[in-house]
Amino acid sequence: MNCTILAVGTELLMGQTVNTNAAFLSQELNELGINVLFHITVGDNPHRLDKMLNNALENSDMIITTGGLGPTQDDLTKEIIAKALGRKLHLHRPTYGKLESFFKRLNREMTNNNIKQAYLPDNSIILENNAGTAPGFIIEEREKVIISLPGPPKEMKSIYFDSVKPYLQRKSEYTIKSKLLKFVGIGESSLENVLVDLISNQTNPTLATYAKDGELTLRITAKGNSHEEIDSLINPIVKEVESRLKEYIYSYRGEVLEEVVVNMLLSKNLTLSLAESCTGGLLSSKLTSVSGVSKVFDRGIVTYSNTSKSEELGVRESTLRTYGAVSKETAMEMALGIKRASGTDISLSITGVAGPTGGSPEKPVGLIYIGIATDSSSYVKKLNLTGDRNKIRNYTTIAALNLIRKTIQEEY
Amino acid sequence: MNCTILAVGTELLMGQTVNTNAAFLSQELNELGINVLFHITVGDNPHRLDKMLNNALENSDMIITTGGLGPTQDDLTKEIIAKALGRKLHLHRPTYGKLESFFKRLNREMTNNNIKQAYLPDNSIILENNAGTAPGFIIEEREKVIISLPGPPKEMKSIYFDSVKPYLQRKSEYTIKSKLLKFVGIGESSLENVLVDLISNQTNPTLATYAKDGELTLRITAKGNSHEEIDSLINPIVKEVESRLKEYIYSYRGEVLEEVVVNMLLSKNLTLSLAESCTGGLLSSKLTSVSGVSKVFDRGIVTYSNTSKSEELGVRESTLRTYGAVSKETAMEMALGIKRASGTDISLSITGVAGPTGGSPEKPVGLIYIGIATDSSSYVKKLNLTGDRNKIRNYTTIAALNLIRKTIQEEY
Predict the structure, then answer these.
(1) Residue-wise pLDDT tens digits, B359-378
(2) Among candidate residues B194, B223, B251, the one where a domain is terminated
(3) Which of A411, A412, A404, A34 is nearest to A184 (CA)?
(4) B 202-241: CB under 8 A from A
(5) A172 and A164 Cβ atoms separated by less than 8 Å
(6) For chain B, which residues score pLDDT lower than 50?
(7) With contacts defined as CB-CB under 8 Å, which chain A residues touch B24?
(8) B50 contacts chain A (CB < 8 A)
(9) Which of residues 84-103 of B touch A (CB under 8 A)?
(10) Of A142, A210, A288, A328, which sees the most CB atoms within 10 A?
(11) Nearest-CA residue of chain B relative to A289?
């Protein structure tokens, strides 16, 4: 089975919105073994939408549209699809009732515009929207399937997981399942090199890598007639990948690194404190994006000035004078200083040159020291990173999170 | 003039990469008065690429392709375009020379694959790539224009600004210019309501709003025969917008809010310190993303635990006991505490409930207090925000930045 993803919305053609829906749906469809052939975006223009819809019907077995289901006059995806297939729209009572109580709850008047959302094509499967007002729908027409979803990513995803994915799974002759392995401390091309034989030679399971902001994911997808059969296909591959790359794997469930670290701290009942210089609170901010972190994260200090390093962390002025703020000596004293002040089990410090200014031949942009102190050990790691300020700061926090992860693994 | 943006790359159809190029180019083209009709994405498949290329040639005056110009066998955009237009590829000596010295500098062998990048269509305008190895090109064929750019956004943008934008500006009969006004403290729909008459009735200049992560932009675009003429069209609109919304405007140059705040601190020679609780370092991290901030940002303390609020900031235990950590009293003592410790001109504190847990009927998720202290004043602002943890944390930092901005405006 193959598919065209058709996005509708002038805001996409104006560049006001990035079409993240297409990437989301593509990942999901590929995982179900559905081949995505085209992404197409058109504006809120009946003629061009009609043209592209017919084009897509000709070229693919399935079309998923996103956008154009809302209450305004510009929203015309439903109308164009119904017309193209010679169907009428009729009032869908359950949707109407839901809209009515929605507006009653908000104490707002339900306008005619809003009622428009309850008119849906004849003989379609209505997909309830638990994250908004406009429902989606599925039309099966001869050998083709058209699935229409709202444009806001939250609503689109909600309907996808509630209704579309189960529908597609029922339609498929196979069961399909994926396992996500996440890696840190290795680059995408190195990962691919180590796994090239598995990636090239496998058709079931298939292996694909995804890299984003320093997060590296390997997706292993298999199809079969039962969960047991699929597990028996996926598990040996996971074992093989582990035998080659175990030390770099930090999650088997697709979590981000800061979640894994916070969960390790929670499960081992360990507390953490931070002293950041060049990352300026970015590490602290990432860790505190995880709900529940307050049980393990005590405090973080961003010491941007030399004075603050001495005053807040007790870094000796002679250390700053002799070795400089960016040095392994300062990193070590920062880590020990925040440990002393906070009394946490683990303390980590970061100092470095994030750039673009502030570099020198001895201490170039990208030179970073990360210090870590526990009750039984202390250690400073040196990094030489490349890239812009943003990238250097981001990669530094990933390296720091990984250092916390490894320290917990080794010491606790 | 109208345009189709055609992205080439299987990674897009797999959902491994989000097509941000289409949004970037759309914004730029719309600003030049070029109407974007379609975005199309195809994989590295010669047959489907050829089909969509011909489709786009039929439906639009101009096509911009992104991707498929690299050294691998999968990269075939150039070959398909040349074939579709009946042109041959020939070795472009300057590009070859550039590649040769590039690989010499890296001490790497230049493989045949790489030489492929120096073969370019006959009679095309070659667009030098100053951010990578694969050049772009422009083909003018009868009334149509095809512009081919590499896929990596950094390279695409570099060639766009170096060569494509000047080319399009030369082709245009008009000069086109935009002015960006940025707003804070007002929502997108309120902004549109206040400006609805200007937005609906204007054709030159045109007005469009863009909202992203709490940043709100109004773009005023005008065309004319000279810069003077354009300025005479744009300036009265800017004045009119100012007369309605002056207090919300924080930039006339498209900067982000943290840049504006850092520049205000720099120009007034003021120092800043922060004490964050629920935002966990996010504000500190945003401010330190601005290069040059080290001259004005002294330190930030993330006090996640109650103990750390007392130890690091001198918040009285009786205050925490009586009013709680999320209270205007604690916010005030945090701001005064970090001011005392750092001796900076301005100190700001944040405490609140970011959720999803930790809320109560008296102190619900989204309740935030921001304290600010200067030599001459201290003040606590209360917010009631909605949304998830991420959104609440992000909007809190925007409100805090805006409070610093207004304080500087009023007091210095």
Answers:
(1) 999 999 999 999 999 999 99
(2) B251
(3) A404
(4) 208, 210
(5) no
(6) none
(7) 15
(8) no
(9) none
(10) A288
(11) B390
